[in-house]
Amino acid sequence: MNIIKNRYLYFLISLLVIVPGIVFMALHWASTKEGPLALGIDFKGGSLLEIQFAGTRPSISDVQTVYNQFSTAAQPLNDPVIQPLGTDSFSIRSKQMDDATKGKLVAEMESKFGSKVTVLNFTSVSASIGAEVTNAAGGAILAAALAILLYIWYAFREVEHPIRYGTAAIIAMLHDVFVVLGVEAMLGYFLGWEADALFLTAVLTVIGFSVHDTIVVFDRIRENANIYRRVEYEKMVNHSIVQTLDRSINTQLTVMFTLFALALFGGDTIRHFVIILLVGIFSGTYSSIFNASPILVVWENKEWKNWFKRKESATA
Amino acid sequence: MNRSRNNWLIVMIVVLVAFSLWVDLSKNITIQNPLNNTTLVNRNTDIRLGLDLRGGLQTLLQADVANCASVKAADLETTRTILQNRANALGVSEITMQTAGNCRIVAEFPGISNPEEVVAALQQTALLEFIDAGDTPLTIGTKVQTDYGQASTTTQPTVTPAAATATPSATATSTASPTPAPTVYHTVMTGAALSTVGVQVGSKPGTYQISFTLKPNSTQLFADYTSSHIGKILAIVLDKSVISSPSIQSAITGGDGSITGSFTSAEANSLAVQLRYGSLPVPVKVVESQTVGATLGEDSVRKSLTAGAIGLAVVILFMAFYYRLPGVIADLALVTYALVSFMLFKMIPITLSLPGIAGFILSIGMAVDANVLIFERLKEELRAGRTLSQAIELGWSRAWPSIRDSNSSTLITCLILYVFGNSFGASMVKGFSINLALGVVVSLFTAIIVTRTYLHLVLDNLKLGEHPRWFGL
Q1: Do residues B302 and B82 lie in contact, with contact meaning Cβ atoms separated by under 8 Å?
Q2: Do the Cβ atoms of A252 and B373 come closer than 8 Å?
Q3: A201/B429 CB distance under 8 A
Q4: CB contact (8 A) between residue B409 and residue A148
Q5: Calpha distance B374→B395 (Å, rounded)
Q6: Rounded Cα–Cα distance for residues B88 and B102 (Å)
Q7: Percent of residues, chain B, with pLDDT higher than 70
Q8: How many CB pairs under 8 A join A and B?
Q9: How many angstroms separate the CA atoms of A294 and A8, rounded?
Q10: Higher model confidence: residue A184 or residue A88?
Q11: With an 8 Å Cβ cutoff, is B253 touching chain A?
Q12: Residue B426 touches partner A, C-beta closer than 8 Å
């Protein structure tokens, strides 16, 4: 099996997923001006109220009326986004409201609609903390990337060009982050999903898994580099990928099994989280086989010189 | 591997598994000393569920100041203690309150039904005042009006200690009360003037009194006031409600004084706490609050447990079919892993939240990965013509660098997640990282020690070495 030979095909497949994702992110940014992804209240600030009606569920416009009633200049609640949840519940997003207002609002609904109202979930986040969390999340991802780069550099210090391994692992990791962000942007467009704190956790998990997976392949290259000193670098890398292929696929399968079980039976609360993890873990295995090691070969051969030549001849 | 060492490891593992099973199945652990029947250990080992799973209120409070860096860690800690006291006074059980980062406090109230009241009680900025009540003692609980901060409608109601210390000197001259109907009492000083507060045994047996020391800049003011008002009532008011109404027995000139009365020990202590912590050193506001209904929580627990069980079952079947005998042994190691991790969750204890469970399930995948790495190596060595015993040892030693490096990188990510989650009060992220890290550490132990010991045990005793097909070759 020769994976290295077709490396540009595999890079192209990656781009076919990443580029549409970036287009969706750019479109979202251009249309809303708030960033590449539809952000949930964890990042943006606001309130999410999930309520269940014991009796008949009122219409969306009736609920809207109650919100309007409690809207003040200091706490504008007049444009809530109300979505039905199951057959007897609503999920309502609005600007931030405090607990006292929520109490009054629920009491008003109970008396107005003559039905017991159960609060399933109420989250309220102020805008300032949301912005701070967004910045810190970016910081956490950068910090993780840097720490991992340094670790790999250290772990591969006995191989020639250890920094290449660290860099290739980070590129593969960024590949997975972009795949996940792109898929989130598309799902956000089609299904109205919003990125929340759990989404951030999923992204960070994908980072961990992606590097975990890449290191296993690199470890084999590290070992083989000493055994097959006379063999061409390209062949040696390919041999290493093939040797670890069973392990890469089997590990991915076992993680996928548990994640599929969670997606199917784990309930609505974590489904979004689990689906993002599934996409990210799949991408993590793909990138460690088809991107990370081929990048080492591209680097070893300094192939970018050829890209330049090809371009030159094409334009000439 | 040395056979006696293997036997020794087997004993260790059996003891560990037995202990884990015992902890996993019991809700409370008690160990009695057989000699004198005293209790040596008494620990509640019921699994702790996070708010998202059992329902309740979580709030993130933040110092209401312009610059977070200006908040002193000690002041924030005192604020936390006061808030905890206030919350305890509401009769809510199992509250946890932790400071997070420079200026935040995470408060969790499991299973409450009145989040609005709790939040309101936390946010009040308690104001402690000593007021001049003239000759008549005030009944405890009476609502009074005071002249502190003049008309509270025109000025900011939030009071900071810095502003409070300046007030007494400014109002020292006001004596008459020109206001008609509702009496406006004169505030002699506020809680900010107190330096230390303690409880002492009173002169009558069984009674207690409260002793206090004033801050240096308030001593003179208090000395002047008490010398000219002997015999008068100096009522103590918390948030405009009278909590005690003692009379001035003698002039207090040295800055030390005591409040006598027929207090019981509990009353004296609670009054001392209120005097000590009357006003928050750092004013706080609610920046994030989440209430999860109990029904949603129960539903989530049931569903994620089902999902976890199904996922584990599929992984176990896959391992057994693909890796045959070693797969079955890895499955046994996986069960050991689950038992030990669950025991650690209960013993440490770690609060299980939804992301925490997800982190744990993900770590099952990582636990399997270590075994897969080893078995793939084992197969390779067997194909290369090594004897089974050699292959096992080589499989482990060659797989080790990749297991070490890959898990190290996961642990690094966990650490960064933990720091991030901790400083922002994002307990979800924190829970996830703790569980994943714990899972990685336990999985290393099971893959390196438990699987190998089990495999040796089977091979040494059953002589299966001649059946390569059992190894999926």
Answers
A1: no
A2: no
A3: yes
A4: yes
A5: 5
A6: 24
A7: 81
A8: 222
A9: 9
A10: A184
A11: no
A12: yes
